[in-house]
Amino acid sequence: MTIFKINRGMRDFLNKDAKTMKSIENIARKVAELYGYEEIITPVVESFDLLSAKTGEEIRSRMYAFKDLGGRKVALRPEFTASVARVVATTLKNKPRPLRLFCVGSLYRYDEPQHGRYREFWQSNYELIGTNKPQADAEILLLTNSLLDKVGLKNYAFKIGHVGIIREILTQENCKEEIQNKVMQLMDKKHYSEAINLLKSIGISKHCISTLQKLTELKTKNVFTTISKIGKYVKNYYKAVEAIENITEILNLIVESEKRIDLFFDASFVRGLEYYTGMIFEIFIPEINIALGGGGRYDKLIELFGGEPTSAVGVAHGIDRIMLAMQNQKILPKTKKRETVVIIPIHTQLKKEVLQISEKLRSTDLSVRAEVMDRKITKALEDADRRNISYAIIVGERELKERAVVIRNLKTREQRIIKKEDIAKTLLNGEI
Ligand code: HAM
Questions:
Q1: Of 12, 105, 250, 254, whose Cβ has the fewest other Cβ atoms within 10 Å?
Q2: What pLDDT, on a 0 to 100 scale, did the predictor assign at position 338?
């Protein structure tokens, strides 16, 4: 007989982990509500061309891509942003701006599995569409801070960059977009000398090379000191100077929001995705060396999908990695405690009564497990103890004649006979 194994890079989430994942998802949904983001649900399978348009070589080459039975080239989504951009360019094209959209769900990348890197993973994703103002960038950073704070994480820091700096330097140096993308990919992996060698090989000016080297080597603690130094290095590249002005404005807004957010700026920081045009960021905690989330501004993607030119900024948080971070920082998920009850009949002929009482109690929001294995009372009670259930209702003929049951507190062992109509009130008010 074949024993089926789970696919590499995929996981089953059992009780505790499933609860933690859901608790993070619930917090993400709450944050969406607090910031006015409406939830949309998009398909897991999308056209390959849509998903690969600006996703970057790294993700493009690792998509779960296949032909469906109708011969269409499709793929499992590796991220939400392309799908949201498609919806904005089509169904929502006439809706008033700004649009604030939220998605949550599973994504697929055929990455090499390792700690915190899976082939199926979950994100909460927020997109703020229709504005290029720095307040929008600041909102995405603040929203991310709010989510991580509500989850209970400590000491997380935002690594900030701006793709405008390096892109604009290279554009002013007449470097083709294709080469720019390669340079950005190398820099994303911190292969700085390879990036510099590539630029040297196409004859980029010495001044440009030395500026880029200064940018990659720059290290200061204070984010505003870093930015002002970068401003001096790039002063001959006027569009890169605009990028510096833009990021300064965004970070000033964060400071003025009076939220204490730990930020650092890295001019050579780039992200794997090719659609970014402005501020970019990722979040880290000291305990693990992988990003808990990342995002940035992308002002050209929606028009690429046939929409009006539309500015946008967004973020995705890795729910799996947030769970890892919680485990590292020993944070328990915030879940509402709900009283749990088992209902056990004295003998199997009373199964109808058990189902009837169970349904009544569930309608009052109690979590009820009915005995479904015809076990003896002692066995069923032992099982309830093992599962940490709070109460047992024991249904017997003698009590039923008086329209009553036995109710037992499994923690204190106290027990008494009560009328059926009083069970819910007694349990919900903790009167036993
Ligand atoms: P991303 O940086 O590719 O950005 O993914 C965001 C987050 O998803 C990562 O920081 C990480 O926490 C999680 N993640 C990514 N890949 C994996 C993986 N293989 N296993 C576990 N977790 C993973 C995006 O997806 C952009 N769409 C974000 C965005 C939205 N930009 C603008 N709007």
A1: 12
A2: 79
Structure tokens at 180: 């720019």
Residue 281: per-residue pLDDT: 98
- How far is ligand 1, taken at its centre, from the CA of residue 295, in Å? 8
pTM of the model: 0.93
Atom of ligand 1 nearest to the CA of 122: 22
Centre of ligand 1 to C-alpha 318, Å, is 6
Q: How many angstroms separate the CA atoms of 337 and 388, rounded?
A: 12
Model confidence pLDDT, tens digit, residues 368-412: 999 999 999 999 999 999 999 999 999 999 999 999 999 999 999
Cα 411 from chain centroid?
A: 38
Percent of the chain with pLDDT strictly greater than 90: 89
Residue 416 alpha carbon to ligand 1 centre in Å: 55
Phi-psi region of 409 (alpha: psi -120 to 50; beta: other; left: phi over 0): beta
Q: Where are the beta strands (DSSP E) in 130-223?
A: 157-162
Q: Which of 273, 292, 298 to mutate to test the pocket of ligand 1 (most atoms within 8 A of CB)?
A: 273
Pick the range with the lowest mean pLDDT from 74-83, 222-231, 277-286, 315-324: 222-231
Ligand 1 first shell, C-beta below 6 A: 79-81, 109, 111, 116-118, 121, 123, 125, 127, 273, 282, 291-296, 298, 314-316, 318, 320-321
Ligand 1, closest atom to CA 293? 10
Q: Please give the pLDDT value at position 57.
A: 83
What are the start-end ranges of the H helices in 81-133? 81-89
Of 257, 242, 275, 37, the residue nearest 138 (C-alpha)? 257
**Please, are residues 342 and 390 in contact by the beta-carbon 8 Å criterion?**
no
pLDDT in the model for residue 335: 77
Question: What mean pLDDT is reported for the chain?
Answer: 95
Q: What is the DSSP letter of 402?
A: T
Which ligand 1 atom lies nearest to the CA of residue 283?
Answer: 10
E-strand spans in 378-422?
A: 391-395, 404-409, 415-419
On whether the CB atoms of residues 357 and 393 are closer than 8 A, the answer is yes
Q: Among residues 169, 125, 101, which one has the least CA distance to residue 28?
A: 125
For ligand 1, the distance from its centroid to the CA atom of residue 293, given in whole angstroms, is 6
CA terminus-to-terminus distance, the chain: 51
Sign of CA dihedral 289, 109, 25, 5: negative
CA 276 to the chain's CA centroid? 19
